[in-house]
Amino acid sequence: MKGKVALVTGSTSGIGLGLARALAREGAHVMLHGLGPAAEIEQLRATLAGETGVQVHAHDADLGGVGEAARLVADTERIFGRLDILVNNAGIQFVSPVEDFPPEHWARIQEIILGSSFHAIRAVVPGMRRRGWGRIINLASVHGLVASPFKSAYVAAKHGQIGLTKTVALELAETAITCNAICPGYVRTPLVEGQIERQAQLHRLPREQVIRDVILAAQPSRRFVEVEEVAALAVFLCGEPARSITGAAIAIDGGWSAR
């Protein structure tokens, strides 16, 4: 991927940061994206650039805002001169019974997950067509394939993301641009680690029992997917051996969606 340019949304922590790091290690220049303390993000940017020797920039677009995803793509193309790999990873969650689900949370989840994916893809495809190559990856979820209670907005957005993936893949099938979705189950991230500690305190259970019987109850493997596994799949999808894989929703979920 030497000389390619990748934009990974929601990439200042967790899965997104792992994806950005893996692409940079393969030689791609990277646009990081995320909200948070500027000093911390600058440290991340400088560290990644120093570790890999590629160009790394950072952007703080709020993808819940009108036009922000398109601006993020345009700024990436302006700064690097091109954009070859788009990974739509940004997302938020809110848990509530559907009858109590706040409409404002529904709207923001749809915009950040599904809306921003659409707007970013819409903005990036013309340049990919001109250059004759591109890779689009939507970081969906096992919840794009199956549902769980109390997550109506997230499940709906992730199912929509997979539908968007298939449609874009069909529209671009005769080009060298592919569009795929990766559907992870529970991935070991700092956010999930925090959930483990809270559940252990709430249920007064040992940490390992919380992992096995609470957090991973739906994941038959009873082990977390590691960020590095998701990143390795993304790197493969960006390579030439994956040029015929498009429109796929690939589960990496320890057997969850096989039930």
Short description:
Helix 3 packs parallel to helix 4 (103-131) and helix 4 (103-131) runs parallel beside helix 5 (152-171). The protein is built from eight helices and seven strands, in the order E-H-E-H-E-H-E-H-E-H-E-H-H-H-E. It has helices at residues 14-25, 38-52, 68-80, 103-131, 152-171, 190-203, 207-215, 227-238, and strands at 5-8, 29-33, 56-59, 85-88, 134-139, 177-184, 249-252.
How would you characterize this protein structure?
This protein is of the alpha/beta class and 259 residues long. The protein folds into two domains: 5-187 and 226-258, NAD(P)-binding Rossmann-like Domain (Rossmann fold, 3-Layer(aba) Sandwich); 188-224, no CATH class. Helix content is 48%, strand content 14%. It has a seven-stranded parallel sheet with strand order 3-2-1-4-5-6-7, with helices on both faces. Helix 6 packs across helix 7 (207-215). It starts with a strand and ends in a 7-residue tail after the last strand. The relative contact order is 0.14. The model has no long low-confidence stretch (mean pLDDT 96).
Observed structural traits:
single chain, 259 residues, globular, 7 strands, Rossmann fold, 14% strand, 7-stranded parallel sheet
Query: What profile does the largest beta sheet have?
Result: 7 strands, parallel
Radius of gyration: 18 Å
Low-pLDDT ranges: none
Range of strand content:
5-15%
Write down the CATH topology of the largest domain: Rossmann fold
Series of secondary-structure elements, N-terminal to C-terminal: EHEHEHEHEHEHHHE
Q: State the CATH superfamily name of the largest domain.
A: NAD(P)-binding Rossmann-like Domain
How many β-strand stretches? 7
What is the CATH class name of the largest domain?
A: Alpha Beta
The percentage helix is: 40-55%
In the CATH classification, which architecture of the largest domain applies? 3-Layer(aba) Sandwich
Q: How are the strands ordered across the major sheet? A: 3-2-1-4-5-6-7
Oligomeric grouping of the chains? single chain
How far do the termini sit from each other?
36 Å
Q: Give average pLDDT, whole number.
A: 96
What class, by secondary structure content? alpha/beta
Count of distinct structural domains: 2
